[in-house]
């Protein structure tokens, strides 16, 4: 039986899948795959090649480091092991055509795949927790936006969600107390979006005209001021962070939210990169 060592500086899933796809063409072949993941040091390379030499095996690898690819070639020749570099030739050709140097960072493909999956989950979470929906299940939220009607809660929540943040929003209504599940969250995760009364008046009048909502009391100055006062009072009582969004884009508001989040609450994958963008 032939043993094929699948060697990778990440999970080895890419090389494993490729080898299995090739083996389909060899019906009844007796082959076993031995995956060796997270191979990132010269010592690990030498150990794997030594293991493969003892078993008289074939080595297939997807190492991104130029130095490790050269070492595995040298060790394979020295110990009489047949080794095949799957990723190296592709990287070299792309580098030549693009006139760029590859990052040589292990696991980037897996990180991108995980990142995309998280974005999908975050967007789904946002749609199920918009405007107070499923408010009893917002414990997973990393950011919760609160505020009165027309204060940019939904667009800001979706902007964050499309960038992988689990976000929700809950409307503040004077006649309705905040739900217990909201009050149970750490206050540093909750951001109250506030806006100048004059701008809110414009937005509410436009919405009332489009949706056939009575102007009074929804778009009256007295009602808006009353709701804003209530929102401010909730912020003081529950120590929520306040954010004036008047005249700001969702990108600006989202950036301010990420800056205000405690460093311990920022995921390494998103936090600093998002702040630099």
Main attributes of the structure:
8 strands, Rossmann fold, 277 residues, elongated
Could you please describe the fold and organization of this structure?
The chain is α/β, with parallel strands linked by helices. It folds into two domains: 2-98, Rossmann fold; 115-276, no CATH class. It contains twelve helices and eight strands. The strands form two sheets. Strands 2-1-3-4 form a four-stranded parallel β-sheet, sandwiched between helices. A four-stranded parallel β-sheet has the order 6-5-7-8, with helices on both faces. Strand 5 (143-147), helix 6 and strand 6 (167-171) form a beta-alpha-beta unit. Helix 2 runs parallel beside helix 3. The chain is elongated and about 85 Å long. The protein starts with a strand and ends with a helix. Residues 268-277 have low confidence and may be disordered.
In short:
This protein has 277 residues and is α/β, with parallel strands linked by helices.
Q: Tally the structural domains.
A: 2
Helix segment tally:
12
* Range of helix content: 40-55%
Please give the alpha-carbon distance between the first and last residues: 53 Å
* Strands, total number: 8
Radius of gyration: 28 Å
Mean pLDDT, all residues: 87
Widest beta sheet: strand line-up: 2-1-3-4
Shape: elongated
What class, by secondary structure content? alpha/beta
- Low-pLDDT segments: 268-277
* Proportion of beta-strand residues: 5-15%
The H-and-E topology, N to C, reads as EHEHEHEHHEHEHEHHHEHH
């Amino acid at each position: 039986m032939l043993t094929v060592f699948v060697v990778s500086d990440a999970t080895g899933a890419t090389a494993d899948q490729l080898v299995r796809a090739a083996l389909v063409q060899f019906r009844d072949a007796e082959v076993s795959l031995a995956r060796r993941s997270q191979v990132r040091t010269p010592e690990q390379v030498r150990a794997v090649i030594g293991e493969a030499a003892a078993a008289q095996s074939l080595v297939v690898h997807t190492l991104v480091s130029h130095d490790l690819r050269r070492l595995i070639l040298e060790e394979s020749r020295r110990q009489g092991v047949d080794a095949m570099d799957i990723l190296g030739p592709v990287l070299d050709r792309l580098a030549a055509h693009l006139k760029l140097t590859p990052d040589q960072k292990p696991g980037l493909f897996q990180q991108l795949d995980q990142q995309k999956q998280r974005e999908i989950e975050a967007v789904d979470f946002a749609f199920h927790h918009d405007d107070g929906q499923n408010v009893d299940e917002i414990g997973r939220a990393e950011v919760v936006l609160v505020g009165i009607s027309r204060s940019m809660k939904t667009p800001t929540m979706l902007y964050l969600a499309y960038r992988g943040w689990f976000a929700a929003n809950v409307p503040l209504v004077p006649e309705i107390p905040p739900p217990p599940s909201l009050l149970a969250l750490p206050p540093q995760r909750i951001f109250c979006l506030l806006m100048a009364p004059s701008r809110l008046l414009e937005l509410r009048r436009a919405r009332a005209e489009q949706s056939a909502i009575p102007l009074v009391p929804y778009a009256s100055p007295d009602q808006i001021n009353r709701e804003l006062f209530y929102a401010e009072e909730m912020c003081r009582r529950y120590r929520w962070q306040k954010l004036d969004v008047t005249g700001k884009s969702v990108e600006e508001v989202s950036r301010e939210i990420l800056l205000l989040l405690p460093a311990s609450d920022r995921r390494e994958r998103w936090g600093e990169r998002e702040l630099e963008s």
